[in-house]
Amino acid sequence: MSVLETDPEDMIRVIDEDGEVVGDVPDLSEEEFVAMYRYMKLARHFDERAVSLQRQGRMGTYPPLSGQEGAQIGSALALAENDWIVPSYREHGAALVRGVPLKQTLLYWMGHEDGNRMPEGVNVFPVAVPIASQIPHATGAAWARKLQGDDDVFLCYFGDGATSEGDFHEGLNFAGVFDTPTVFFCNNNQWAISVPRERQTASATLAQKADAYGFEGVRVDGMDPLAVYKATTAAVEKARDPDEDQLRPTMIEAVQYRFGAHTTADDPTVYRDEDEVEKWKAKDPIPRLENYLRAEEILNDERVAEIEASVKEEVAGAIDEAESVPRPEPREMFEHAYAELPPELERQYEEFAAVREEYGDDAFLED
Amino acid sequence: MSVLETDPEDMIRVIDEDGEVVGDVPDLSEEEFVAMYRYMKLARHFDERAVSLQRQGRMGTYPPLSGQEGAQIGSALALAENDWIVPSYREHGAALVRGVPLKQTLLYWMGHEDGNRMPEGVNVFPVAVPIASQIPHATGAAWARKLQGDDDVFLCYFGDGATSEGDFHEGLNFAGVFDTPTVFFCNNNQWAISVPRERQTASATLAQKADAYGFEGVRVDGMDPLAVYKATTAAVEKARDPDEDQLRPTMIEAVQYRFGAHTTADDPTVYRDEDEVEKWKAKDPIPRLENYLRAEEILNDERVAEIEASVKEEVAGAIDEAESVPRPEPREMFEHAYAELPPELERQYEEFAAVREEYGDDAFLED
Amino acid sequence: MTETQNLTLVQAVRDGLFTEMSADEDVVVLGEDVGKNGGVFRATEGLYDEFGGDRVIDTPLAESGIIGAAVGMAAMGMRPVPECQFSGFMYPGFDQIVSHMSRFRTRSRSRFTLPMTLRAPYGGGIRAPEHHSESKEAFYAHEAGLKVAIPSTPYDAKGMLISAIRDPDPVVFLEPKLIYRAFRGEVPEEDYEVPLGEAITRREGDDIAVFTWGAMTRPTMEAAESLAEEGIECEVVDLRTVSPLDREAIVEAFEKTGRAAVVHEAPKSGGLGAEITATIQEEALLYQEAPVKRITGFDVPFPLYALEDYYLPSAARVEAGVKEAVNFP
Amino acid sequence: MTETQNLTLVQAVRDGLFTEMSADEDVVVLGEDVGKNGGVFRATEGLYDEFGGDRVIDTPLAESGIIGAAVGMAAMGMRPVPECQFSGFMYPGFDQIVSHMSRFRTRSRSRFTLPMTLRAPYGGGIRAPEHHSESKEAFYAHEAGLKVAIPSTPYDAKGMLISAIRDPDPVVFLEPKLIYRAFRGEVPEEDYEVPLGEAITRREGDDIAVFTWGAMTRPTMEAAESLAEEGIECEVVDLRTVSPLDREAIVEAFEKTGRAAVVHEAPKSGGLGAEITATIQEEALLYQEAPVKRITGFDVPFPLYALEDYYLPSAARVEAGVKEAVNFP
Ligand SMILES: Cc1ncc(C[n+]2csc(CCOP(=O)(O)OP(=O)(O)O)c2C)c(N)n1
Ligand SMILES: Cc1ncc(C[n+]2csc(CCOP(=O)(O)OP(=O)(O)O)c2C)c(N)n1
Ligand SMILES: [Mg+2]
Ligand SMILES: [Mg+2]
Predict the structure, then answer these.
(1) Any idea where the domains of chain B sit in the sequence?
(2) Pick the catalytic residue: D100, D131, D132, D264?
(3) Residue C123 burial (CB count, 10 A)
(4) If one looks up domain B3-323 in CATH, what number appears?
(5) Are A222 and A67 in contact (CB under 8 A)?
(6) pLDDT tens profile D190-220
(7) Record: contact B61-C320, CB cut-off 8 A
(8) Which of B88, B191, B181, B87 is nearest to B131 (CA)?
């Protein structure tokens, strides 16, 4: 039986909270295991640094991902090189795996659109802020590739809150009808800002919503990176090369928790209990994988220390790089509205430039 | 077992294509059976006349309902006096049952907003043209009544095509979360203009979509008015007075067929086969109920002839009435934009009135 | 020698689609009833038979899905041409239009561009039900990153549509359905472009410049002819693209006459008549001899058809408005 | 004697909600995070504790559902106050706004009316992510059947919100979040109405009339003070309601000075600066001594925050623009 045939009420699991094996471990090389672990450590450390940058006024509002590394890294690693991810705004971890430089992510949250200019060859869509609105893009892009005769798969991320939006419905329904190679990956972190999962929908699970679109939906322990990897691998395989009676799309509900605030502008103590947070922290995906890898003798103290050091260095370097990027020239915002600047826009720029020339930058920048 | 627990893959039925009893007949009085039959005849005759008025240029584009009388009349009769219907644009039959004068319906399709001004005490929402957009209204209105401590139930109509829109999703999801007394009645007539049901969604049934919102969904033979009555009655009862473990909303998929064109502007021969039409015409709800009522000796030739004559007279009278209503004065369109006419709008009217005065009505009306 | 056909506006749209689909495999059409049915106005007639169901795609009934999927397709290098059945039904997809279609280039600093053309029949006057008569081009013209094109002749319809499909940026293409079949015009069989952003003078005149577009060119020309009999000569300028506006053409025509009127179907307040007026007085105030007269729809929801002839600017209203401007003060 | 509190604008909004919810059981608030969390800007703080979850309702994340459900509630005689978390997230519900909220009265010939107030924080300048800085009031002002209110002081925020909630017709209520907490003002504890549709003069002056609203009143006043030092006296008019516009006030202020500028954050093309300009030249051309200067956002998508200070009209741009108008020709 394919893992995708798991009843949505059940939950796919591989290692438990202590790293003990409770399911079939996916067939990964030692290197791959270590890479998975390192990505998770990197994402976590990046996240901690980003939150502190924001506190120090060196970055704008930032959405932390701590607690969600298992789902992000486990899923992104299941893709082949040509595949794509279509993120929301919280998938810095997945983006990392797909080759988005940390510097880009930092730049983006420092208010530079340039952070969203993915390098050529990096198959990642730009950050999408309006909830669920990226879902139809993932369907359409996958559909395009299928029409073009390619076999790329699109992995689309969104939250539990996103399942309530019309775009979730329309995007998944199109995927079912046009049988597009899309994996819909729901990061159910229990909260949409202050609104709990039960207030989002009366259905017992989110995974079961896939049934409304004619394809499979499964639940996976989103804090178990191996379970996530396994489920996503199966979904990606099916998307690329389905059996005759199968539709390509899958919806994966990865059950997890956001440890921190929704964004740095949010105070979660107003709406949720510390007890609940503690309960979920016990499921932290990182020590869990670490325990397993130590038991398997893939990791040891020395290796872990090495990884921690290299991760720190990498993040520090990226921060330096990002902070050394100067504020962009205002001309930039005019230049990317259209392929060719319309005359009126050129006039607007010139008028602006003249005032800036006369009054100086200080008249504009409050800092 | 409640009829609402029927598996969505099954279909609730009471009488078959010949009017033979195949399920439990609902407990209706002779009078009520006759009223149901007469409403269906009235709706059918109205429909035929409306199509012909349009052909003669006496009415604008009109959406016919023939074939769908069983679903409309059967469901609307299941409501109590204080309940409401929230229609799309094709529910002239249901509106009839709820007390909307035929004249109003005619006026509306003759291009008068006045046709949408329901008389006080007629609990019918105005016609909603943008597909599925009335669904959140039905949820919100039902929710309001619940908050106000009333026990009115809202019966919301929409088509198979409507299930693809975001508003379907959002409206039903809200109903599940806020447990509103709403019955979502899907007139699955197999086609959304030229798009067949299978192109609308990959799910096996439409009824199963209710599962995504945590409440029951059932399929009913929409051309069997008694089955429709039975299913709707059960759903209305549950909406008004649910058991402890039940959510109030239900989605009913009434499987049926539109015999005619989508609207008088549509030519269905371009996209569907005459065979298919014939197959469904064999299920015509009217002869079917008539056969049953004749077998029960509730109807006979004489009674049927009487009904036919009275129905003709009623429709002819309504057409006379509607056609004797003069073109509204243009002032009307200004007066209902706001409770109080803003000064700019008054100015716009005055300027218009002056031109009309000078150039005469002929300068505006092409007829 | 160029072969031409004598086509209606909607036939010219179809011909434009046919031409570009024949030339470029990446062009696909998607929407409700565009396939076998050929579109509710026949704008895609025969394309399904010619190009098949993978390029002429009947979708589920969901505008946000249609436009959003087209955004994804365009980001992958295709040139999708999504259709909304009426412009009044673009709103369920409005978020995709203003939050994504207009912004992918800016957001990604041009890594992703969206060569897509969103078509919709637009405007009133065909005795249709509610929501079938909207003309809210001002919404799209106010959203940076979009271009907004509205042809008024069969020749322009084909040429502008081809330009739109080939444009590297997203275009909202609004087709005045009142004149879908009102008249015919010569349309070359071959492909050609009518550039976006360029107005055209439909009639020369020295007394007043009248700016209009889409279906309103007809009552405007009619009024111009009848005014000519009274000795008032209108310069009628069809703007054709309302974003970007051809401000040069507006100013030039205005400077010639010192007086102007704008004719559009959309409600007056916040309509593009205001933008044209503001442009004129910004650039050519010293030439101005009279207020720019706005002859427009009213600030009320578009009425059902019993009243629509009163709502739409008629030749009589254009005449009266032009006279007011010409006789000022 | 009236007791007053010294409140920020967002506190005044909250106070307005509190006041009307206390007075009228039919007033309910619904939206994302409006309950326990008190709204992401604290505009509904404490209301959940005071009025309970049946009147201060956290909804699923779905704007069309929120607005559409509110339409249904309002049709049943309630006075719902739906919130969109940011005005950039009103678009998924745009169809409900322009196809229903604005039209129920017209459609039903006043049998159904919608006494509802759709609130959203609006405008840029708070270093927020994409889509959190939009100011597209022109969309709503172009849709007949809606009123559009934008307060710029705590006093107005409470009084206009109360008027909006009591209005028999639907109101879009846009709250300039840049000045949510920028300053405090005296706000009466009792209930009071600031009528919709009435502009207010924030500063008297004889040289030029400057029209603005919302957060742009601040740089405008700042520029006016600094211009006064140079001997240029601005009459600053805060329009407060952009639909219906207070055209009388616009014309009156303009006639006094013969020169005008408009300051708004929204993109220039198709923005309300054009409507105000058109009104002026329609009604008062003979007084006009200079083109009306539009000082506005640019015709580009609102940038991420590294560039937003360049995008938003600053006091410097207002100064330069006013001087241009004053020194014309
Ligand atoms: C259309 C839209 N409405 C509202 C918002 C404001 N908002 C930002 S994040 C968020 C909650 C999202 O919850 P969820 O989908 O569960 O994702 P998570 O943040 O938990 O990863 C909201 C309401 C938005 N970005 N887009
Ligand atoms: C939002 C929207 N998009 C498109 C249309 C045009 N349209 C009118 S009816 C229709 C098909 C509706 O199909 P269905 O929901 O099955 O209802 P039926 O007409 O079969 O009763 C379409 C596409 C519309 N009215 N509203
Ligand atoms: Mg979440
Ligand atoms: Mg149908």
Answers:
(1) 3-323, 330-364
(2) D132
(3) 29
(4) 3.40.50.970
(5) no
(6) 999 999 999 999 999 999 999 999 999 999 9
(7) no
(8) B88
